[in-house]
Amino acid sequence: MRQYIVDAFTSEPFTGNPAAVCVMESWPAEESMMKLAMENNLSETAYIVKEEQGYHLRWFTPATEVELCGHATLASAFVILNYYEPESDEVRFNTMSGVLTVKRCGTKYEMDFPTYDLKEIPVTDDMEKAFGVRPVKAVFGMDLICVFETEEQVRDMQPDQAMLMNVEGRLQNATARGKDADCVSRSFAPKLGIAEDPVCGSAHCQLADYWSKELGKDSIHAYQASKRGGHLYCEMQGNGRIKISGEAALVAVSEIAAAL
Q1: 58: Cβ–Cβ under 8 A, 6 or more apart, which residues?
Q2: Segments forming the whole domain that contains residue 208
Q3: Same domain assignment for residues 213 and 195
Q4: Tens-of-pLDDT digits for all 260 residues of the chain?
Q5: What are phi and psi of 123, to 5 degrees?
Q6: What phi and psi, each to the nearest 5 degrees, are found at residue 220?
Q7: pTM of the model
Q8: Is residue 260 a part of any domain in this protein?
Q9: Within this chain, do residues 132 and 102 fall inside the same structural domain, yes or no?
Q10: Is 30 one of the annotated active-site residues of the chain?
């Protein structure tokens, strides 16, 4: 089985968010997919099987299968559109979150994703203990978003991973208004076996929606301020959908020798 390592939301290898992408003829046992994801030890390993109508796509962290992953979807589209269907500029993935369409737009790949209703929730002492800084606001959709006063607070924070386990949500996102981008953010997911997701596409289904309303604009340039860093270009569609675009860079192609 061939596996690709692709850095998503960047044009520079060794930045952005790395994903492993495995293109297969049929599904191996779920236990085998979980073991390979643990072996890769990346935020996500994506598994793809071709169907009559597009491709079936699943995502695994080192700890569990997840229902939505942005950077591994972008990486999967990069692989399909460059190495399996180079004559195409669009690919459809059937996923746990419904049909996700990705289009090639120049050097970027544009993903059509759902948004989620956001509700404001009380800021708690546990949030302050987890992030090391007290948020000025907290909202919840599929995941937790804690809003901070300054970009520097988000960039400099060293969250307590054990305390994050006590905070709402599968992901805990820290965000603030940016200087060179509309917003800066970081995404932590210890409950999924991920200390920090370097550039989280699915989180921006909520982060971009939040900042779009706060800033009164439909187009959001987001920067994920992890050590690797990455840029996301988000366009609100006004129908419960969002388009998230980014670039990708191939790092490696390998053959999995172990039987799955």
Answers
A1: 33, 46, 47, 65, 95, 96
A2: 119-239
A3: yes
A4: 999 999 999 999 999 999 999 999 999 999 999 999 999 999 999 999 999 888 999 999 999 999 989 999 999 999 999 999 999 999 999 999 899 999 999 999 999 998 989 999 999 999 999 999 999 999 999 899 999 999 999 999 999 999 999 999 989 999 999 999 999 999 999 998 889 999 999 999 999 999 999 999 999 999 999 999 999 999 999 888 999 999 999 999 999 998 78
A5: -75, 135
A6: -125, 125
A7: 0.91
A8: no
A9: no
A10: no
CA–CA separation, 189 and 158 (whole Å): 14
CA atoms of 181 and 223, how far apart (whole Å) = 6
Q: Dig out the tokens for 256 from the structure.
A: 């999995």
Count CA atoms closer than 13 A to 10's CA, side-chain side: 24
Instruction: Spot the catalytic one: 25, 31, 39, 44.
Output: 44
**Amino acid identity, position 212:** S
Residue 86 and residue 20 share a domain:
yes
Q: Which two tokens stand for residue 10?
A: 């960047």
Say if residue 127 is in the same domain as residue 235: yes
